[in-house]
Amino acid sequence: MKRPERATPLPRPPPGICPSLQVHPPWAQAARDGARVPRAAKNLPLKEHARDRKLRPAVFAFPLRPDAFPRGRRPKEVPLKEGRREHQEVIMGNRAVITTPERKVGIYLHWNGGRDTIEPLLKYCELQGYRPPSSDEYGFARICQVMGNFFGGSLSLGVGAYTTDRQMDPGDNGIYIVEGWRIAEHLRTEYDADWNPIGMRSFGPSEEEDWHQFDDMLRSFDASMPEELRLGEFLDSVEVPASELKVGDEVWMFDSVYGKWEAFPVVGFGQPEFNRIAVEVDVPNGRKKTIYPDLPYVAKCDHDGDFSWNCNNYVHDDMARIKPRK
């Protein structure tokens, strides 16, 4: 049987259809009608399942059910045709794998694998003050914590040893290589004209998903967390240069002991009497100079009404997050 030609890119689902779902290419209809289609033509490599480690196909067919997708945009009710409910071929998943440049550990997401979820996920972990997986293995656990709360249940999320890019590519949204809390690379398997894998390539801008709004996803992650761990109104904060802070601005300060953000008003500018805060600035000839400029400090740690004495009251970074000014 002659191999079919490369399928054209799949169109976006119509409004109302869950963004995780995509209609199969033409060969799927032929297969459903009884025609034999070679597996190579389907571009459906078998994947090792994240839960039971068995090899099984990654694509299934089932009737669209609005109650099957508790999160995100739900599919519309499938219309009746000649007295029966129509079935539609869909991809059961919107998969991705997250790893680091060392490629030792991989996190498997069965749903919400698009860049429009992964970027907010990484930002949310950063705002929580979590240590990134590229520098600390706790970072993998924190990603799983956030996504596990978001998904709920006991499925859709896995973690395990990373093998090779080709073996770990789940299809759909491929592999995210994360450095710090940013996406350094986004890779997928490349195929030749006969659907034979020939290596890995980067996602093009037009291939990235952009269904979900960034701020909406941040708030969705936050709403899924236990109440005592939520960021709450901190997500409404505005980032400004520390040099532009004014007395009265309410600055969010991160408490690394309790692992949470708290807002305190700016009450002055200066340096602590002891443990002065050094700042390096560039000078001619590529050299750096250490200075001790007046920095904003907040009403956090009190000492008989004096807040300038404690270096923990000072804004140390170049940027600061404040409550929106009225």
Description:
The protein is α+β, with helices and mostly antiparallel strands. It is 16% helix and 25% strand. It has helices at 26-32, 39-42, 115-127, 138-151, 165-168, 214-224, and strands spanning 47-48, 55-56, 80-81, 84-85, 96-99, 105-109, 157-161, 175-179, 182-191, 197-202, 238-241, 250-255, 260-270, 279-283, 287-291, 295-298, 319-322. A 6-stranded mixed sheet has the order 7-6-5-8-9-10. It is elongated and about 75 Å long.
Strands across the major sheet, in which order? Answer: 7-6-5-8-9-10
What general form does the structure show?
elongated
End-to-end CA span: 70 Å
- Main β-sheet, in a few words? 6 strands, mixed
- Counted by DSSP, the helix tally is 6
Give the strand tally: 17
Q: Which H/E pattern describes the elements?
A: HHEEEEEEHHEHEEEHEEEEEEE
Helix residue percentage: 10-25%
Low-confidence stretches: 6-78, 83-89
Q: What's the structural blueprint in terms of helices and strands?
A:
Blueprint: H1 26-32, H2 39-42, E1 47-48, E2 55-56, E3 80-81, E4 84-85, E5 96-99, E6 105-109, H3 115-127, H4 138-151, E7 157-161, H5 165-168, E8 175-179, E9 182-191, E10 197-202, H6 214-224, E11 238-241, E12 250-255, E13 260-270, E14 279-283, E15 287-291, E16 295-298, E17 319-322
Parallel strand pairs: 5-8
Antiparallel strand pairs: 1-2, 3-4, 5-6, 6-7, 8-9, 9-10, 11-17, 12-13, 13-16, 14-15
Helix pairs in contact: 3-6, 4-6
